[in-house]
Amino acid sequence: MSGFRVFLRRAAGLLLFLPAGLRAAGGGGETLVFVADSRRYTGWQAWFTNLYNESLAQFTLLTIVVVPLLALTLSGLMGFFLSRTGIDLKSRSTGGGH
Amino acid sequence: MTMPIAGIEVFWPGLVILGLGVGIIGSFFGMGGGWMVTPGLNILGFPMAFAIGTDITSMAGNSLISTMRHARFGNVDYRLGTIMVIGTVTGFEVGAQMIMWLESLGHVDLFVRVGYLVLLALIAWVIFTDVQAKRRRDAELRAAGRVASGDEGGIQWHKTFHRLRIPPMIHFKTSGIYCSAWLPIGVSFLTGWLAGILGIGGGLIRMPALIYLIGVPTHVAVGTDLFEVVISALYGCGSYTYKGRTELVAAVIMLTGAAIGAQIGSVATKYVKGYGIRLFFGVAVVGCAVSIAFKLAASALPQWRWIFDPAAAVLILGLVVALAGFIVLQFIRGAREEIAMKRAQQKTYVGR
Questions:
Q1: Nearest residue in A to B133, CA atom
Q2: CA dihedral for B335, B70, B74, B72, sign (positive or negative)
Q3: Do A96 and B107 touch (CB under 8 A)?
Q4: CB B278 within 8 A of CB B127
């Protein structure tokens, strides 16, 4: 229990320390806008960079669709190859299935 | 290879290797691994503006693969994870708003880094104290002629929190715990708030919080934490991409390596006992803390920046290589034993 008290004391110290320190600093920053140079590219890269420059909403939609889809595909592929090795991929048990 | 958005040349096999390493470590310890990827991307020549968004986008895919594998092993407590998402998102937003308000008052980088360092030191102290207590307890049990197993033994703070009987009480079947719903909500709010303030994913904080404050078994903590990382990383991916800070091509390349690594790391948790995972998680936390200390030293002593900055990067990448190597070795050893055992059982079965 004494270890727990020490932990709580240190956690409380951290919480108290942060805001006080933060208030002591100064200055701020501005948001940067990035533009991809689509003139350098042809084909899919030109389409890709133009999409980024013209509509970040569509580019975001493309990203949040592509990433999970690719992850699911790669996961399925890797699972297929790994299951060929004979490792049981459905249970935490390391023994046989009989 | 040219990155179309950032317009820079990048050594693409480096991205695959980085993805592989983070995939292995992240899926083994149950974290996104932003602290490993960002310096790695910097070394590969990525501008800082794109490093975080690209990192979080590949993290979304990587954690999804790991969660699916852990779910097959029964390591994901969906009920707990879903309840915790509420606290995490609320806490994160409060933390992020708080840091924006504080930013308007002044530069906060130094104080955030010091806060992060203190927090990591605390986590490392908790983990090593726990491992030491477990060893002591196991030795006592052995001396008494009994055998200790599982996660029982070290720090048991969660038992104190489980005594809080504030309704509604919930039974988390996969984790095997019965507690007030306010416990995971409160803990996730706290970890989310810290993650929001520190500008990190939060896996490094949430994983020990799940174990020590809620009492989730180590393997389930890994899987459940990854489930939360999927949701937060997808949110972060959308947010950063909408701000134009994601190099999707790089994230996709990293994901090819991460797909292999995530499978290796997830399966390796079958072969390493809970306390083994905790101990090496502690090592990862110490490595992360030391690298942040180097960054702080570089800020305090700019004339020595040329040595502190590369030292921090080398330390983190060295740690990634060492931990990934250790996990791969455990995976190979465990898989060999499992396959050999199955073959022996098949022979016995045919022999009958």
A1: A3
A2: negative
A3: no
A4: yes
Kindly report, residue by residue over A56-68, the tens digit of the pLDDT: 999 999 999 999 9
Smallest CA-to-CA distance from A1 within B140, B80, B163 is with B163
Give chain A's domain count: 1
Q: Record the pTM.
A: 0.82
How many C-beta atoms surround the C-beta of residue B273 within 10 A? 14
Q: Would you say residue A24 lies in a domain?
A: no
Q: What string of DSSP letters covers B299-335?
A: HH-GGGHHHHHHHHHHHHHHHHHHHHHHHHHHHHHHH
Return all residues near A42 (Cβ < 8 A) that are at least 6 apart: none
Note down the domain range covering A68: 57-86
- The answer, yes or no, to whether residue A21 has pLDDT greater than 50, is no
Q: Is B219 on the interface with A (CB under 8 A)?
A: yes
Q: Inform me whether the C-beta atom of residue B76 falls under 8 Å from chain A C-beta atoms.
A: no
Tens digit of pLDDT for each residue in B18-64? 999 999 999 998 888 877 887 788 778 887 778 888 888 998 999 99
Q: Distance (Å) from the C-alpha of residue B126 to the closest C-alpha of chain A?
A: 8
Q: How far apart are alpha carbons B327 and B333 in whole angstroms? A: 10
Closest CA to B65 of A32, A49, A57, A68: A68
Q: Which tens digits make up the pLDDT trace of B130-175? A: 888 888 888 888 888 876 666 666 788 888 899 888 899 999 999 9
A residues 46-85 closer than 8 Å to B (CB): 48-49, 52, 56-57, 59-60, 62-64, 66-68, 70-72, 74-75, 77-79, 82, 85
Domain regions of chain B by residue span = 12-351
